[in-house]
């Protein structure tokens, strides 16, 4: 697993990106997902639209009322200003590191080290975003919590459609198609031998969709219980304009971070497997494919430098 592209999922929109990292069953592919942004101008546009996208993402989950909407928009604006000033320089540094790594062979351990750097960035997002998201969570009405439950159920049905329907061969092919698309956005077209290697790596991966769906549902249930418990402890939903209790912020931040496995987590063997499989594929890329990767990464670095520059 290599970090070349996960930065895009952190960039726009930041918290939605962090949430996607919890989809742990395909981390090797996830690390290349940012390359869905095919040009520098697209990334800049996406970043500029991130606050609005983040607002609509949250609203889609809980159906905000007017007062909640106004407060959340203010929180998002503050979060976006922090992210541009404090986080973009860190991503620029990572992109420089990855450009230096791209022409060289790599190892699973090196790739997992970069995964660790990106996980730390996601934790920083959680630290910064915990209070505004706790504010939203504690203000939710019973009807809004039911809306959240329905949205969870909808997303779970989508997971089932993608990973539990069809024959084992069909399921594997869907995973291969997505992984190849993402790799090719970094390296250009893969050879038949490289595609075969991706297929074999995914076939051998410690991937259990049923177990992951069960874990997903358990975390969703835990979140709903936690919100209800926090609200009960304060006598009901948080009033508009009221301060968010620090223990609630800490509890919700802890719930989020516990969903981010470490690279050496024995309960998440797919991470080490993904690191090794990415390294194996990268080491079979041609000089031209590696040069293309460098140019793609340079484009992202230039983009982030423009975004981070003072207005």
Which radius of gyration do the C-alpha atoms yield? 20 Å
> What pattern of helices and strands is seen along the backbone?
HHHHHHHHHHHHHH
The oligomeric state of the chains shown is single chain
Percent of residues in helices: over 70%
Count of runs of 4 or more consecutive helical residues: 14
Straight-line N-to-C gap: 36 Å
Beta-strand content bin: under 5%
**Helices and strands: which structural class?**
mainly alpha
C-alpha geometry: globular
Low-pLDDT segments, ≥5 res: 1-39
Largest sheet descriptor: none
Strand segment tally: 0
Number of domains: 1
Provide the residue-averaged pLDDT: 84
Structural account:
This protein has one domain (6-308). It is built from 14 helices and no strands. The chain has helices spanning 6-11, 14-21, 27-30, 40-48, 50-62, 66-101, 108-139, 142-163, 168-187, 192-204, 209-233, 246-257, 269-282, 287-308. The longest helix has 36 residues, at 66-101. The radius of gyration is 20 Å and the shape is globular.
Question: How would you briefly describe this protein structure?
Answer:
By secondary structure, this protein is an all-alpha fold. It has 14 helices and no strands.
Which structural traits does this protein have?
globular; mainly alpha; single chain; 311 residues; 0% strand; 14 helices; disordered N terminus
List the helices and strands and how they pair.
Blueprint: H1 6-11, H2 14-21, H3 27-30, H4 40-48, H5 50-62, H6 66-101, H7 108-139, H8 142-163, H9 168-187, H10 192-204, H11 209-233, H12 246-257, H13 269-282, H14 287-308
